[in-house]
Amino acid sequence: MFHGSMVALVTPMFGDGAIDEDSLQRLVDFHVENHTDAIVVVGTTGESATLDEAEHCHVVRRTVEMAAGRIPVIAGTGANSTREAIDLTRCAMEAGVDACLLVTPYYNKPTQEGLYLHFQAVAEAVPVPQILYNVPSRTACDMLPETVERLSTISNIVGIKEATGNLDRAREIMDRCGDRLDVYSGDDATAMELMLMGGKGNISVTANVAPAGMHELCAAALAGDRRRAEAINRPLEILHRVLFVQSNPIPVKWALHEMGLIPPGIRLPMTPLAVEFHDTVRQALRQAGVLT
Question: What domains appear along the chain, each with residue ranges and CATH number?
């Protein structure tokens, strides 16, 4: 349903943590102009964990309005409470999103049956296209391929963001689910390889700062052009690494501020990028050609 480079968009904030809607509009326009294939708003990179429900729904609604049909908008609506996930997903659907992205429930560590019933409940309650999101490094919860296969039979579950970086895992999901479920990378460092072996795109942190390059990389990989994909990816590889020198979205928000696109705000318990990493991130931006 969705193919290519899908930016895991930051939520721009002022120094006091208030949401900066002017900068949000600037980012949406930036991605439209640079041919990003979809915007994923209020996911992990969008600091969904520290937005309250009203703010969450407001940012989704405003992003849809700002996009104005120029680019698909996918809203992060996962929660570790099934009722809350249903409420957030319904709010996003009513705002007019094209799909929702639902992370596995975090902290409470459900069983595989619990995961199946959680996602089934959200899908049955809200008839919007839904993309599963598996990122056990953050959630302490790993959704196994057999559970993904069961969920792939539900008509409005259309994809999975597989963020383990494990290409064998991604291949197993593809083999099990076939054309019932699109598989997307959630790991910039391995995204090219995942797409070359049949994945449909990348939900990307790097795309925040290098949207044109990530769009071109995804287009080449989806076309099966390994030589071109590798040539495009080569200067971006440093960003794939350096944008994780501290927990996401700390480095990418600092980078976007350095590029003049957003204010420096980030909400506790996340803190601004440590001074010791400023030159590291700045040099990576320069090496990748996105900062002069």
Answer: 4-225 (3.20.20.70)
